[in-house]
Input
Amino acid sequence: MNAAPADQIRLLDVQALDTRLTQLAHKRKNLPEHEEIQSLEADLLQVRDLLVASRTEEGDTAREQTKAESDVDQVRQRAARDQKRLDSGQVTNPKDLENLQSEIASLARRQGDLEDVVLEVMERHEAATERAAELAQRVEAVEAKTEDAVARRDAALQEIDAEAGTVRGERESAAGSVPADLLKLYEKIREQQGGVGAARLFQRRCEGCQLELNITELNEVRQAPQDAVLRCENCRRVLVRTPESGL
Output
């Protein structure tokens, strides 16, 4: 294949733009904010689950406390009624008096036990309430961090996409000035060679594979017509000669 030296030089421009697009795509995919957001979202999911569990416990202990306080109140009211009967003097039978006094004493013990239960439940309820409040604050903090990371990611993506759009426009313009057959060969090689289809021969070294040409290869390059499209013997990329080739 033959192509004017200027067209081959323009192919290097296309390659440089393709390389920049590859770099931008890699940068876009590997923004540190991606990993940061993923980590924050995992933390947020965990903290929200803990908050739900804590609020459930808070509600359960609140109901448990209400029930325990109601039990205490019922015992207290019954004990008050018995005490009122005892104080009224209406009960005169010794056996009935003994039973009434025994019941009042039993109710007092029962009330004490129930009040201990109320105190224990209150402590658990207060702990659950404090825990829920703490977790709610943690959720807000992680949400704020996540929003900040998302904003930074979106800003970075917007900047990358804007540059990529500019580079694609330049690439389209540069590729339009390269002969179709040379561009087709370049695209085929670029697909096979990890995104690099053309390389400069610089100081007797192929910048595609970074290997220096041996004396036989150099002589072949020197003897080739200026419009001949050369290929590197090692990596098979289009090898473009420039004034810095060291020939």
